[in-house]
Specification:
Structural class: alpha+beta
Oligomer: single chain
Largest sheet: 3 strands, antiparallel
């Protein structure tokens, strides 16, 4: 049964009209939605670092004016009251083949194998160390993204929180400086998901914001590992002076 009869002239114009519509849809600012070519991203798992990234506040970087290391406390503190400073706690936890001084705290030697930032092997020997304790989120980066308005107790907690600390090759750490995800990533690509997930966890825990470029870089890395869980734990967000 024929439902529609077009004149010869109308039949000639139908292909032209179709081409005109296709061209209009291809123009900048024109978007066709709902068609079979649409590709929606898969669901982001609950509890993942990628999901947490969506919740980070995006703002511009504030001036570094007034920043100094002492604003986050003097050196390494004993924020967990175990009698040992945070630096030795992290060395003892993250190094292998650890030897300690007779005081039970001071780490004298150990090995990072693999070292997270480079994937190589680095030895630690007190006094001639090639190992730094790096803040995943650098102190000066935190200062420019909210920490300058914190209490002293919160800044001390941030600087000594195990969630924000990793034993790493000193050369790689110094190349990083105070860079964020948009400006520096570990050369060891196998560690990048762990590294970025850690930064997201720290920024979420302490309420720090991120720049647009930083959030985009975080998302790009974590899309390669969408099931990566958001790290949790660490210390309370306020610390004393010990």
């Amino acid at each position: 049964m024929t439902l529609f009869h077009a004149s010869p002239r109308a039949r000639r114009l139908l292909p032209i009209a179709a081409l005109t519509l296709a061209g209009a849809l291809a123009l900048p600012g024109c978007e066709f939605t709902g068609g079979p070519a649409d590709t929606a991203p898969g669901p982001v798992p609950a509890g993942s670092a990628l999901r947490a990234t969506d919740g980070l506040t995006v703002k511009g970087r504030a001036p570094k004016t007034g920043y100094e290391r002492d604003a986050f406390g003097s050196g390494w503190l004993d924020t967990d009251d175990n009698g040992c400073g945070t630096r030795d706690d992290i060395l003892a936890e993250q190094l292998d083949d650890v030897s300690r001084d007779s005081d039970g705290c001071k780490v004298l030697s150990g090995v990072l194998d693999p070292e997270p930032y480079t994937g190589g092997r680095v030895t630690f020997e007190r006094g001639r160390s090639k190992v730094d304790i790096d803040h995943l989120v650098a102190l000066s980066d935190a200062w420019q993204k909210g920490a300058q308005k914190w209490s002293d107790a919160k800044r001390r907690a941030f600087a000594n929180d195990p969630l924000n600390l990793v034993a790493a090759d000193s050369s790689a750490n110094r190349r990083k400086g105070d860079g964020d995800t948009a400006t520096w990533l570990p050369p060891n690509t196998a560690y990048r998901c762990t590294y970025v997930a850690g930064q997201v966890a720290v920024k979420k825990k302490y309420g720090l914001w991120v720049t647009r470029a930083e959030k985009d870089a975080m998302t790009k890395v974590l899309k390669a590992c969408p099931d990566r869980k958001l790290p949790t734990g660490g210390s309370p967000t306020e610390a004393g002076t010990r």
